């Protein structure tokens, strides 16, 4: 619960800071505040229900409840991945084509990118639905081994043999994980090669400081997500799966705002301005 409150407050603070300071109305910070919004949705999908379940010692969830939780989990989780890729693209344009940055990242382009993220998340959800609706037995209540109804729990309920199940999970994970990851790798490959070409060390320093926070989040999010995905495809120990899922569903949204606000001068300045206006 304290982690949940911390995540809510931290992410709300980022949204508030970005929206209240007109210096921060640039694509990078608007995407960041979108990311915070998605993070709030992501953590709210699982944690409040877990807190209630712990109090009531409840380990079952209704079929409809399970599908709803899975849908929200996929939409927010996928938006999170895609937004990280869009933010990497934004950094790539800012560093490799600084003169055209205003033109390329105009407000309508940003809107289209966001819409694209959302549509891709819907496609991923549709894929899961096609599989999940083949439920061979539609019970009203479902007992889940993990602490929430994620995509892999729903897949386990569809009574495939374990090999088909693993192959399905692997394919979906690779398909929807690989798309944003390859975008991020491409952007950073371009960024690094442009840094190598520039000779001034102050330019390099500046580039590293703007990319550092984004890269930390990318490593945190993908590191834990890939860890969860592949350990859960290989092992069937519910306990280790649950521990890995906590890392990725709770810890990342909590740390996101802190990584950004502690390392970023613009956010810190804007935050100080809000504080001095308030008191
Ligand atoms: C999300 O991004 C869009 C486009 O950049 C921006 O117009 C919108 O204000 C952002 N939303 C939030 C909550 O910051």
Automatic annotation (TrEMBL):
Localization terms from the record: Cell membrane
UniProt-recorded Gene Ontology molecular function terms: G protein-coupled receptor activity; olfactory receptor activity
Keyword RNA-binding in annotation: no
InterPro entries: GPCR_Rhodpsn (IPR000276), GPCR_Rhodpsn_7TM (IPR017452), Olfact_rcpt (IPR000725)
Recorded topology in the membrane: Multi-pass membrane protein
Any one annotated GO CC term: plasma membrane
Pfam families, per the entry: 7tm_4
Assigned keywords, A-Z: Cell membrane, G-protein coupled receptor, Membrane, Receptor, Signal, Transducer, Transmembrane, Transmembrane helix
UniProt main location, coarse: membrane
Domain G-protein coupled receptors family 1 profile as annotated: residue spans: 10-260
Transmembrane segments: 30-51, 112-131, 167-189, 210-230, 242-262
UniProt signal peptide: 1-20
Purpose of the protein: Possible taste receptor.
Identification of the protein by name: Olfactory receptor 7E24-like
Species assigned in the record: Cricetulus griseus
Protein encoded by which gene: LOC107977271
């Amino acid at each position: 619960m304290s982690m949940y409150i911390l995540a809510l407050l931290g992410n709300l603070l980022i949204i508030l800071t970005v929206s209240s300071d007109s210096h921060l109305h640039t694509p990078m910070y608007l995407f960041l505040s979108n990311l915070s919004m998605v993070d709030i949705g992501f953590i709210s999908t699982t944690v409040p229900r877990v807190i209630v379940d712990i109090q009531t010692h409840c380990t079952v969830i209704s079929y409809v409840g399970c599908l709803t939780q899975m849908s929200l989990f996929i939409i927010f989780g996928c938006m999170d991945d895609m937004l990280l890729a869009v933010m990497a693209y934004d950094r790539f344009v800012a560093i490799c084509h600084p003169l055209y940055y205003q033109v390329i990242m105009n407000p309508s382009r940003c809107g289209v990118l966001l819409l694209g993220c959302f549509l891709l998340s819907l496609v991923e959800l549709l894929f899961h639905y096609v599989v999940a609706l083949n439920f061979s037995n539609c019970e009203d209540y479902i007992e889940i081994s993990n602490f929430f109804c994620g995509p892999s729990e729903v897949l386990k309920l569809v009574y495939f043999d374990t090999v088909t199940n693993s192959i399905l999970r692997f394919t979906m994970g690779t398909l929807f994980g690989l798309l944003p990851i390859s975008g991020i790798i491409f952007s950073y490959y371009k960024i690094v090669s442009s840094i190598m070409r520039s000779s001034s060390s102050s330019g390099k320093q500046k580039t590293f400081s703007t990319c550092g926070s984004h890269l930390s989040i990318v490593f945190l999010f993908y590191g834990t997500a890939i860890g969860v995905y592949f350990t859960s495809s290989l092992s069937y120990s519910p306990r280790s799966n649950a521990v890995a899922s906590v890392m990725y569903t709770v810890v990342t949204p909590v740390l996101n705002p802190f990584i950004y606000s502690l390392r970023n001068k613009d956010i810190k300045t804007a935050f100080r301005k809000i504080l001095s206006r308030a008191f």
